[in-house]
Amino acid sequence: MAAWFSDPFAYTFFTRAMIAGVLVGALCGSLSVFIVLRRMSYIGHGLAHAVLGGVAVGLVLGQGMYVGAVVATLLAALLIDRVSRRRGLHADAAIGIVTTAIFAVGVATLSMSPARINVEAVLFGNILGVRTSDLWVVGGVGLVLLVTLVTAYKRLVFATFDPEVAAVHGVRVGASEVVFNLLTAAVVVASVRVLGVLLIAAAVVIPGAFARLVSRSLGAMLAIATAVGVGSSIVGLYASYHADVPSGPAIVLTASAVFLVGFVVSATVRGVGTARLRRPGPRRRAPRDDDAARDRDDAEHLLA
């Protein structure tokens, strides 16, 4: 049994892949909590599409994958923030407009120079082809994310739950939004080599969604989501090696299975609680079902 765990590490590429998977899992897991709480799950999907546009243009111009990806995602993050500030336009509309346009640029570039780009690696990732330079990129982004969360934690939380009140208390909400979008863009870029364009969206949503199901404490949510991201990467890599399936899909399927279990268990527990409330006995206050009331209650718990 021990050989099942140790044999893959006889290959250097698997060791690098495991390090990259753990780092990316931690990055995506911790960031996913804020993405889910901000109801911006679409941003991971959108920025991943923007990455394709940047990668395609960067490789065709001979500037490398990361140069094009960084330029495209940073541009997309800034434009999303700018467009969403217009009255009547919400973040989801801004994400759809900006990232789809950049994605279209990438598709047009691919059609003109398809031979220069490994489309499959860009779309689905190539974690077994991770190089030392990729590990430095992921590690650098992880350090920036950690420093940001430590130094701006309260401001990010305040701006997440009540931006209007946060602004009254001196929090620069606009700057917080820009920082958050740039962080998301950086995490997406760092994850491209591991998960690919089509799978990043799941990695920055599923861990946070699972944590949201099982906890209402922000600290616990961050710990749980990070653990789900790291654990899914580890299990998915072993499954990829032994079952001979692509590593990116294996990681995402593992995280999806964890979410499914959490969803079923939480639904069962909630059903039991509702049945108890309906039993004859002392009159109890009916639970409030409106989203605004739930958000206010959750904010009180999460900010406590």
How would you describe the overall organization of this protein?
This protein is an all-alpha fold. It has one domain (15-278, 286-303): ABC transporter involved in vitamin B12 uptake, BtuC, CATH 1.10.3470. The chain is built from 14 helices and no strands. The protein has helices at 2-6, 12-37, 42-60, 65-84, 91-112, 119-124, 132-161, 163-168, 173-195, 200-203, 206-214, 218-243, 247-277, 291-303. The longest helix has 31 residues, at 247-277. The mean pLDDT is 78.
Secondary-structure topology with pairs:
Layout: H1 2-6, H2 12-37, H3 42-60, H4 65-84, H5 91-112, H6 119-124, H7 132-161, H8 163-168, H9 173-195, H10 200-203, H11 206-214, H12 218-243, H13 247-277, H14 291-303
Instruction: Decide which structural class fits the backbone.
Output: mainly alpha
Helix content: over 70%
Q: What order do the helices and strands follow?
A: HHHHHHHHHHHHHH
Quaternary organisation: single chain
Which regions are unreliable across 5 or more consecutive residues at pLDDT < 50? none
For the record, the CATH architecture stands as: Orthogonal Bundle
> What is the arithmetic mean of pLDDT?
78
Tell me, briefly, the overall form.
Answer: globular
CATH topology: ABC transporter involved in vitamin B12 uptake, BtuC
N- to C-terminal distance: 45 Å
Note the main sheet.
none
Kindly give the count of domains.
Answer: 1
* SS field, number of helical segments: 14
Counting DSSP E segments of at least 2 residues, the number of strands comes to 0
* CATH domain class name: Mainly Alpha
What portion of the residues fall into strands of 2 or more residues? under 5%
- Rg for CA atoms: 21 Å
